[in-house]
């Protein structure tokens, strides 16, 4: 790790250098310039070695260079950097500090001629144990503790001697080759021998600075990669786990991936780039994980791991994810969270954002809220406030996304929040499948860029959605099939008819629009801090049992009457528990109980929207009512019609009571199945009978016979109450 005394001829010490610890009984007053032993007169400090640094021999011998002084203090072997002459050249200055100051300052301006590494072992101020600290002559500032591997890397960043070639070097800054400055980056130094037998070095630039930090491996020990670190074209430091299969062949896919992430390379050195990465085998190992969120009791984010540990997120995305931080937690609490006080919708939305990390802790798979109401009412603003818990407004997604895009968004939101705005932009025929997929947390298997099978994506997330209509109304308007299972996976909650649109309080703003604008602007400036603070309070706390009990306690405050209501209540209780936990941690600044009260109010609101019957029954009735309303005249023929009545895609017939005028719809089996919109026929008949809409036959049978056009025909007779078609009451579920 240092030059030997024989590597460079000793030079006369015009000005003996001093190592000046604060302890007066350990001061080497003079040092030998030849690397031999020198005993102090006091015999309390012994210099056992002096190693001159390597210098550029093409430069004139104009004075002594920095020295690495090794001396013994008590039983501890110490290394200390002596200072260089300040008058060596006008363009170079250097300074040394005492070994007990626990820092090293070394400045070299202009051309750097001292290229070796200075190694200092400085005793810790607390334990007294020596700490290894490194500083390069061309660096400035405090030294830092380093591993041996990092020390070797720093040593390797010095231009090599001829004996060291051929070799690779990574220069983080422009370097001097004795003739001029060369650009920073990865260089390949080859050895050339001329016709006269003289050896020389050739230097080839490969790419911008790129270091291989660690070997990465997945939890199964089957997928390997390398953790690469490099600055992109904007100067931002990027880390990326490179899958090892990208090194195969000519490395075309590798170069494309690096270019997409902002690395520059020399086109004529393409194969050398592959060779460089192939030859780097660092000792450090890390665990690569395919998703964000909880792993081995730690929480992985794109740029950090809450709880520490050698874990990194392996992402195929070329752009950094949107878990950005801006502003301080205190600013977010005062300008974003404070706006939620007294506002049911905002309290629910922000609490839902905190619920994501709790899913795994209470062994839940998802929670979902859909806020619906008139446009421009503030629903999107509520979603922006929720998103600000975790990152920038770019985390707010649109329902108008491809299946692949929605799957990627869900995976990136694992254990946090997936916010989807404007349900109306999605095709209602596809929404049902998307809801099931998001709630079930499993993606589709696809091929990856290496030609193999891409790992199937998995996620757990809280879904927060907005739209002008309920999910079922939007789906049915587009001809989609809405099922009760979707209703409890994404809970419809009205959010557009509060006092000021989606808001109950506007905290001194001129109106609801001004309040929404101010809150949206605040989320642009302030975001990403609350979620991380929340995670720091969760990691390592072993709160699983306590959290589960808190959720059950909040559920007990809700009047749960059937299985579907219990599923809704559990999701709302989880959201309320998350909000209260964030409040107790000092993150939201809300009064205690605010989040719990909000979810209790939300449950009552949901119950009032559902009525007393089960959701599935109501969806069946709504489907049949809607079908009759849309097709009652076009696809049903009068049973006793004397003339041919052309009907396309006949669903059935009608018969009218001559006394009351009540119309009964005689469904053919195929027509009723279509009207049930995907629900099981037997289940639909039970719901129709329970509501009193089904006219039964002999023996209480669901099906009866009618003579139609001279033939006995099996039909299902449905008679709607007078007020159902008039006001569409069933459609308000």
UniProtKB/TrEMBL annotation:
UniProt lists compositionally biased (Polar residues) regions at 1-11
The protein's superkingdom reads Bacteria
Q: Where is the DUF927 domain?
A: 182-456
Ranges where the record places region Disordered: 1-41
Descriptive protein name: DUF927 domain-containing protein
Q: Which organism is it from?
A: Lamprobacter modestohalophilus
């Amino acid at each position: 790790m240092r030059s030997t005394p024989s590597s460079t001829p000793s030079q006369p010490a015009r000005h003996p250098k001093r190592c000046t610890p604060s302890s007066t009984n350990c001061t080497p007053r003079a040092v030998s310039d030849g690397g031999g032993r020198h005993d102090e007169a006091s015999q309390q400090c012994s210099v056992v070695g002096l190693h001159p640094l390597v210098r550029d021999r093409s430069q004139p011998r104009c004075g002594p260079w920095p020295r690495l002084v090794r001396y013994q203090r008590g039983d501890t072997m110490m290394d200390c950097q002596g200072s260089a002459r300040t008058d060596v050249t006008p363009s170079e200055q250097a300074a040394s500090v005492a070994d007990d100051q626990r820092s090293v300052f070394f400045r070299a301006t202009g051309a750097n001629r001292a290229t070796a590494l200075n190694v200092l072992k400085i005793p810790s101020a607390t334990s007294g144990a020596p700490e290894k600290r490194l500083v390069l002559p061309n660096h400035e500032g405090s030294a830092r503790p380093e591993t041996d591997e990092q020390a070797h890397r720093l040593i390797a960043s010095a231009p090599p001697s001829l004996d060291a070639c051929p070799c690779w070097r990574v220069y983080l800054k422009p370097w001097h080759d004795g003739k001029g400055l060369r650009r920073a980056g990865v260089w390949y130094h080859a050895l050339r021998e001329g016709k006269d037998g003289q050896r020389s070095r050739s230097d080839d630039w490969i790419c911008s600075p790129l270091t291989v930090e660690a070997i990465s491996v997945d939890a199964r020990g089957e997928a390997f990669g390398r953790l690469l670190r490099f600055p992109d074209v904007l100067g931002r430091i990027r880390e990326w786990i490179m899958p090892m299969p990208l090194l195969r062949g000519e490395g075309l896919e590798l170069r494309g991936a690096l270019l997409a992430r902002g690395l520059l390379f020399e086109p004529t050195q393409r194969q050398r780039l592959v060779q460089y990465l192939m030859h780097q085998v660092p000792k450090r190992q890390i665990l690569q994980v395919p998703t964000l969120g909880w792993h081995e009791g730690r929480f992985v984010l794109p740029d950090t791991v809450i709880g520490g540990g050698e874990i990194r997120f392996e992402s195929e995305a070329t752009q950094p994810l949107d878990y950005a931080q801006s502003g301080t937690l205190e600013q977010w609490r005062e300008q974003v969270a404070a706006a939620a006080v007294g506002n049911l919708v905002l309290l629910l939305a922000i609490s839902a954002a905190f619920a994501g990390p709790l899913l795994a802790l209470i062994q839940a798979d998802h929670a979902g809220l859909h806020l619906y109401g008139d446009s421009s009412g503030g629903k999107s603003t509520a979603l922006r406030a929720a998103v600000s818990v975790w990152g920038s407004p770019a985390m707010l997604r649109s329902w108008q996304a491809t299946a692949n895009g929605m799957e990627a968004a869900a995976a990136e939101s694992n254990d946090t929040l997936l916010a989807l705005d404007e349900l109306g932009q999605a095709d209602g025929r596809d929404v049902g499948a998307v809801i099931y997929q998001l709630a079930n947390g499993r993606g589709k298997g696809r091929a990856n860029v290496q030609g193999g099978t891409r790992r199937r994506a998995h996620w757990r997330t809280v879904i927060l959605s907005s739209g002008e209509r309920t999910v079922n109304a939007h789906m049915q308007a587009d001809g989609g099939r809405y099922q009760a299972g979707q209703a409890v996976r994404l809970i419809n909650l009205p959010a557009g008819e509060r006092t000021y649109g989606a808001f109950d309080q506007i905290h001194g703003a001129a109106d609801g629009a001004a309040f929404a604008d101010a809150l949206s602007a605040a989320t642009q400036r302030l975001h990403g801090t609350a979620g991380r603070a929340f995670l720091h309070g969760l990691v390592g706390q072993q709160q699983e049992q306590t959290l589960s009990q808190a959720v059950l306690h909040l559920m007990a405050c809700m009047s749960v009457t059937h299985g579907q209501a219990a599923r809704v209540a559990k999701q709302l209780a989880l959201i309320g528990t998350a909000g209260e936990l964030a409040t107790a941690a000092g993150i939201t600044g809300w009064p205690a109980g605010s989040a719990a009260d909000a979810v209790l109010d939300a449950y009552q609101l949901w119950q009032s929207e559902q009525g007393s019957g089960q959701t599935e029954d109501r969806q069946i009735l709504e489907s049949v009512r809607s079908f009759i309303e849309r097709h009652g005249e076009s696809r049903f023929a009068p049973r006793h019609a004397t003339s041919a009545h052309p009907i396309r895609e006949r669903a059935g017939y009608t018969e009218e009571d001559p006394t009351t005028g009540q119309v009964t719809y005689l469904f053919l089996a195929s027509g009723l199945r279509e009207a049930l919109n995907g629900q099981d026929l037997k289940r639909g008949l039970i719901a129709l009978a329970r509501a009193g809409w089904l006219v039964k036959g002999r023996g209480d049978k669901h099906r009866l016979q009618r003579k139609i056009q001279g033939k006995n025909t099996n039909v299902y007779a449905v008679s709607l109450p007078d007020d159902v078609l008039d006001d569409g009451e069933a459609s308000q579920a």
